[in-house]
Amino acid sequence: MQEALLILLFISFLVTMVSTTPSELGISLPGCPNKCGNVSIPYPFGIGASCAATNLNTYFALTCNNSFQPPRPMFGVSPRDVEVIDISLEHGEARVYGAVSYSCFTSNTTSYNYTTGFRLDTTPFIVSTRNHFTVIGCNTLWLIGGTMDNSSDLHVAGCYSYCEGINSTSDGAPCTGTGCCETTVSPNLTDFLAIITMNESSVWNFNPCSYAMLVEAGWYSFRSHDLIGDHGFINDRAPRGVPVVNDWAIRNSSCPKDGAKAPKDYACVSSNSYCVNASNGPGYLCKCSIGYEGNPYLLKGCQDIDECELRKQDVRYKKLYPCENGRCRNTPGGYICKCRIGTRSDGTNSGCRPVLSKAEQAVIGLSASAVLVISLTCLLVMKLQQSKHRKEKDEYFKQNGGLRLYDEMRSRQVDTVLILSENEIKKATDNFSEDNVLGCGGHGMVYRGTLDDNKEVAIKKSKLKDDDSREEFVNEIIILSQINHRNIVRLLGCCLEVDVPMLVYEYISNGTLFEFLHVNQSRSPIPLDLRLKIATQSAEALAYIHSATSRTILHGDVKSLNILLDEEYNAKVSDFGASALKSMDKNDFIMLIQGTLGYIDPESFVSHHLSDKSDVYSFGVVLLELMTRKKALYIDASNEKRALSHTFIQMFHQKELRDILDSEIVYDETMIVVQKLAEIVMHCLSTKGDERPTMKEVAERLQMLRRLEMQQVTKTPPIQAHHYYEEQSVYVPSDETEYQSMETTKLELEVDIVR
Known about the structure:
Elements: H1 2-9, E1 35-36, E2 39-40, E3 46-47, E4 61-65, E5 72-75, E6 82-88, E7 93-98, E8 101-106, E9 109-113, E10 118-119, E11 125-127, E12 131-136, E13 140-147, E14 154-161, E15 180-184, E16 191-199, E17 209-216, H2 232-237, E18 242-248, E19 273-277, E20 284-288, E21 292-294, E22 302-304, H3 307-313, H4 316-320, E23 326-331, E24 334-339, E25 343-345, E26 352-354, H5 358-366, H6 368-399, H7 402-412, E27 418-419, H8 422-428, E28 437-441, E29 444-450, E30 456-462, H9 470-481, E31 491-495, E32 502-506, H10 513-519, H11 528-548, E33 563-565, E34 571-573, H12 586-593, H13 602-607, H14 612-628, E35 633-635, E36 641-643, H15 644-653, H16 657-660, H17 671-684, H18 695-714, H19 721-727, H20 736-754
Parallel strand pairs: 3-4, 27-31
Antiparallel strand pairs: 1-2, 4-5, 5-6, 6-7, 7-18, 8-9, 8-17, 10-16, 11-18, 12-15, 12-17, 13-14, 13-16, 19-20, 21-22, 23-24, 25-26, 28-29, 29-30, 30-32, 31-32, 33-34, 35-36
Membrane topology: Single-pass type I membrane protein
Protein name: Protein kinase domain-containing protein
Keywords: ATP-binding, Disulfide bond, Glycoprotein, Kinase, Nucleotide-binding, Serine/threonine-protein kinase, Signal, Transferase
């Protein structure tokens, strides 16, 4: 019974308002109640087993508790019910009231109420990432742990709240540690455990209790009164619990493939509906087609929207469905705006405007002959210009290897490369508007764009103009388009009918690692585990292109500006600007490193030659940025420009490592991890390329460090990570004079380029 209750405590959904029409559409099975109190209950949910899709999952059945006014919908069996706040069909989300765990010290006694665990693997629910794990109290540490999507992968997160400086914290302040703290939860969480590992609230007379809760992100804001009194927070702010969020779907199944027969228990039974695979965990959801709304899980549940009638009833719909000065006629899944006599289309297909006045018609009539001649002349000139422009595009397409690209695509059966026209690129970027510029580097301009299918992309205008390298450019498109790694920005296509070829990549929304570390200094501190996550994912991506593809690909421009972060702060390596292994003369090399100051290894300065070990050296500098939050070339306390790699080598030899590290990661519990990370950096920064590790070795060591760091946080017995590092022969330059000489030469060249 307790396990069933705990399952229900974490069944939760984020409310999402579904677009509705003034007409009352049925959302429940015929003969079943649409609501319980003020809460709508849409099918496949229902009040009682006979009104719910229990053939898909028994947890779709709810009860309606009429002992309250208004009545309240519940998951479970009374008296241990969980109250439902709301349910959404469109996004497969809703919310319920969840319990709050607490630990109290009262009169030398301690009372507890723990959330001991739950399992969701037999339910249609998965804990949503819209929740935060939040802790309230003084000098208290709670841990949250669980497994994800029925796997053995363990998710552990902690939250520590302290009260030093509490007097300076105002009500409404974010939960960053003073009085309260919060942390995110992993996606696809199906098993859960919350425990308290430290509670010193007893030494704070005004704060006898600490609280921990899984709660909808943004619901809780700090209030000093929450720390006062026995169970004060629960009694004052959460008497019915706190809102908890979760996702639901039709689990243990997926959308039928095109042409495949739907299974007997297929849930998308309404005409004018379609199936989409769930974004969180396995399963699928049903949605009404565009121009229809209602309940796609019911027969005839998706009804046509009468856009014309909506325009009459509410002025807001006139902007949503425009038809000015015309006659609106509803059609299945849409509407038509037909212009009245005396009006004409305004060019938008959804509006009309009056024709010219009589005076204007007279002027036009008198000038008709002249206008006709001019129009025909202009039309002829335009045709000639279009023909010339078309020939130029065809010539550029051939020069840029377009015909060879088509031959390669047919011979290799490649279907992942989009060949876009210049007009499609201009439309996507609003004619290369400055508002869409994402960046400007040594290899070209990058624009944000939106394709016709509403997919957001990043479009790069390359500076390639060497005719000898156009055949190699085609090969690079074929190779890069077949790279499929979760931590590499994917190449989607190209445009070849212009003077300079353009490449189309997937768009990554959360900016660069450089901005995350150095520009947004006012943001919250960056924990060590997040830094290790970004480092490991970046190393795995570089190791993949070095050794896991059919042809070795060098990046050649590894730096924090070329590592992008998505919304979940996953690393995405981008911009293979110098991905070809080649020698360069001095001028070409200087042009390359102008955007890579502080990252080029000493050997490359001498040989003007890039190799896979050049990427390793540059990645070592990126690791230093993650450890220190200093730029590759930074200004020190004496206002002098210094190379971060050179300074780090000196301080490592002088055993002054703590002085250069970011203070956010310098604490005794993790210094063993930081020390091992510093040794990896020293190995990457070896003056000789042969003495540097491969990117695969670096990635493996970083993976071990992540596990070691998790052990330090959770204080579990050490695993084989210690033995792994004891057995590694980490290279530390013994002749610092030789290294300093080469680094000084490199720094002088970098400073000279800056000038």
